[in-house]
Amino acid sequence: MADVTIDARGLQCPIPIAKISARMFEMNSGQILEIMADDLPFSQDVQAYCEVSGNELVSLEECGNCFTAIIKKS
């Protein structure tokens, strides 16, 4: 179960990643963030964000035109 959930559906790049970054800054190590987004490049953007930030992309699922990412704060 996620400690923080963000619904970024309907928001375009770079807003979903900016929302992740802002919330991760407030979170403690080991906490889990779940984000839902329907911006087409989101799957690539969230993977790149996790690589750069050092946070763990636990899962990334696509259901129709919506993505759900689970990220663990490092």
CATH superfamily: TusA-like domain
Low-confidence stretches: none
The portion of residues forming beta strands comes to: 25-35%
- The name of the CATH architecture is 2-Layer Sandwich
Put simply, the count of helices is 2
User: How large, in whole angstroms, is the Cα Rg?
Assistant: 11 Å
How are the strands of the largest sheet arranged?
1-2-4-3
**Overall morphology:** globular
The CATH class, by name, is: Alpha Beta
Number of domains: 1
Oligomer: single chain
**Measured distance between first and last alpha carbons:** 17 Å
| Structural class assignment | alpha+beta
In helices, the fraction of residues equals: 25-40%
Q: CATH topology, which one?
A: Translation Initiation Factor IF3
Q: Provide mean pLDDT, rounded.
A: 97
Largest sheet: 4 strands, mixed
* Annotation, overall tally of beta strands: 4
- Helices and strands, in order, run as EHEHEE
Offer a few descriptive terms.
single chain, 74 residues, alpha+beta, Translation Initiation Factor IF3, 4-stranded mixed β-sheet, 2 helices, 4 strands, 32% helix, globular
